[in-house]
Specification:
Growth Hormone, Chain: A, 79% helix, mainly alpha, globular
């Protein structure tokens, strides 16, 4: 059900979607910058390699906190303005990496997360006026394609900047570019917020959005599927380069290409699955099909050996990216459609908090399985079981 539109709202839906897509690209690019330069931090700056895990943990702690506070932020600033400000905050956080101390590194990761967290719920609030459209899943999938697009763009551009300027100046350039682009959207987002009704004022404390989506019969199974899929996606993003190197005998450059192919396929996959959910299958059946396909892709990844041709390995990575990375738009579109009137942004906040928890929990648990079994296949089979379970939940949802 759609939130009411403000009177005299003459802003085209395409501009709203485009602005929210741009903001997602920006914060995703910032969030991906630290992992991209991590080899430089550990090699030239002498930092501990385990800081990659600390970065991910602190970033998502910040993201969860900011998402839970989203309604308050949206009421004070407006959802669209808050989205632009969040991009700038993430860019400022990136500069905190430069002093090269453990304290500032952890604080920088936390601040980047504070900027990363509110952008997806803000976009759902912005796009609430179009919830009744027949192509809703495709529209949300277009917007959600911003996450892998930002990661892919950073993976391609930032290493070139590092080679040219050094890692410190490259991060400054990245932060400055994101800040300039976000500032350029301020005029539009302020105009948009001036035309929109205020964000819903919810109760039940800061955990209210999570409690509501878990307690809503129409949303709880969607949230369960989303939680499992997010833990699987984070795990695969973390392990793909390592798996293809260890099992397939690929060098660093070709392993990086595999990861890039997975990200590029996630972009195309999100768009294709959005069309499927709108025109071919119901959204829940689309999610079920994705769950079973991503489980198959995870098992296929675990069977790689040096006898596989590089083209075959790339095809498996593309299959993995298109399925494990393709569900985000459909989930957020359905949370918007199923949310009570006036609570689209609140429902998205609850969904995203649980997604971030899945992202935090997935890689360490699979890493534990790998440590206990010393088998990539067993570890990836456990990931496949998670995906298949999410698909089964989606299939059984009434």
């Amino acid at each position: 059900m759609a939130e009411p539109s403000a009177p005299h709202d003459d802003i085209p839906a395409a501009r709203i979607v485009g602005c929210s897509l741009l903001h997602q690209v920006l914060v995703s690019a910032i969030a991906a910058s630290v992992p991209v330069v991590m080899p430089e931090l550990t090699r030239s700056a002498g930092l501990f390699e385990g800081l990659a895990g600390l970065y991910a943990m602190m970033m998502y702690v910040g993201a969860i906190g900011a998402t839970l506070a989203g309604e308050t932020i949206f009421r004070r600033l407006g959802a669209a303005t808050a989205s632009a400000v969040a991009c700038i905050l993430a860019a400022v956080g990136l500069l905190g990496v430069l002093p090269l101390s453990l304290t500032t590194f952890a604080a920088a990761a936390f601040v980047i997360g504070l900027g990363y967290g509110p952008v997806a719920p803000a976009s759902s609030h912005m796009m609430a006026r179009i919830v009744g459209r027949a192509d809703l899943n495709f529209i949300f999938s277009v917007r959600q394609a911003g996450a892998p697009l930002g990661v892919l763009g950073t993976g391609l551009v930032l290493p070139l900047l590092v080679a040219w300027l050094g890692w410190q100046r490259a991060l400054v350039v990245m932060a400055a570019a994101v800040t300039v682009v976000a500032l350029a959207t301020l005029r539009f987002v302020r105009r948009f917020d001036a035309l929109q009704p205020p964000a819903y004022r919810g109760g039940a404390g800061i955990l209210g959005p999570v409690r509501e989506v878990i307690g809503d019969p129409k949303l709880k199974t969607l949230v369960a599927t989303s939680f499992l899929f997010s833990s699987m996606l984070a795990t695969l993003n973390a392990f793909v380069p390592t798996v293809v190197s260890a099992l397939g005998g690929l060098d660093l450059a070709r392993a990086g290409l595999c990861a890039a192919v997975a990200q590029a396929s996630a972009i195309g996959g999100r768009l294709c699955w959005g069309v499927v959910a709108d025109r071919v299958l119901t959204p829940q059946r689309t999610l079920a099909v994705m769950g079973f396909l991503m489980a198959g892709a995870s098992l296929a990844l675990g069977t790689i050996d040096p006898g596989y041709g590089f083209t075959t390995i790339l095809a498996i990575c593309a299959w993995l990216g298109a399925t494990a990375g393709g569900w985000g738009g459909v989930v957020l579109a359905q949370s918007a459609r199923l949310a009570p009137p006036g609570r689209v942004g609140r429902a998205a906040s609850g969904v995203m908090v649980l997604n971030y928890l899945g992202v935090m929990l997935g890689p360490p648990l699979v890493g534990l399985v790998l440590a206990l079994t010393d088998s990539f296949f067993v570890a990836l089979a456990s990931v496949a079981a998670v995906g298949a379970t999410g698909g089964a939940i989606a299939l059984l949802r009434r």
